[in-house]
Amino acid sequence: MKVPFQIGDAKVYQKLVTAADFARFEDGLVHAVCSTFSLAQAAEWAGRLFVLEMKESDEEGIGTFLTINHKSPAFEGEAITIKAVLSEVTGNNVVCSFEARVGDRLVADGETGQKILKKEKLAKVLAPKIA
């Protein structure tokens, strides 16, 4: 693992809200705005942009935690800008804070955690256990 970043460095990811991002469950559509789940996935991706440049070819990142505070709606056709800020690198743990905005409006904020592991170790950890 290499660390070509400083604490406070930022990565930006932009996501266009589509109907695929709406809040839906098994009982149908909840509301026609970007779901917390979809925001969380975009936030994890924004933090992963750091991991992609930090991991070696024999390593991979895996999510360890996510906190998200959904503050306001994002509507179909709006562009959400997710800014991830590197807040901590401890060993192989990478932590980012993030804000998701549509223009000046705060849609969500929170924190993501990822760990960078050797692919071989990760394969063993994620392998199904035979009972």
Automatic annotation (TrEMBL):
One Pfam match, by short name?
A: FlK
Annotated Fluoroacetyl-CoA-specific thioesterase-like domain ranges read 17-120
Its domain of life? Bacteria
| Xref: SUPFAM superfamilies | Thioesterase/thiol ester dehydrase-isomerase
Q: What is the designated name of this protein?
A: Fluoroacetyl-CoA-specific thioesterase-like domain-containing protein
